[in-house]
Design goal:
The protein is an alpha+beta fold. Helix content is about 35%, strand content about 10%. The chain has one domain. Strands 1-2 form a two-stranded antiparallel sheet. A hairpin with a 2-residue loop joins strand 1 and strand 2.
């Protein structure tokens, strides 16, 4: 999984940096006017670690997560 930043130009998302592989499935999150989405270097590293873990299959099921969350209430 990769994280990419870009801008909308002429109605299309144009990414900065290396291009993604043709046919890649992407998720786009957009900020509202005047809103920013900033993360610290530490938060970005933590996100990258989590993505790497997920890529290795180190995840829990939705059912497991839901049970854990219900137990915390």
């Amino acid at each position: 999984m990769k994280i990419a930043t870009g801008r909308v130009v002429a109605g299309k998302v144009v990414l900065e940096g290396e291009p993604l592989t043709e046919g890649s499935v992407v998720t786009v999150m957009s900020t509202e006017d005047g809103e920013s989405f900033d993360v610290s270097p530490e938060e970005e590293r933590a996100l990258q670690v989590a993505i790497t873990q997920a890529d290795r299959g180190e995840v829990i099921s939705w059912e497991n997560l839901r049970q854990k969350l219900r137990g915390a209430v």
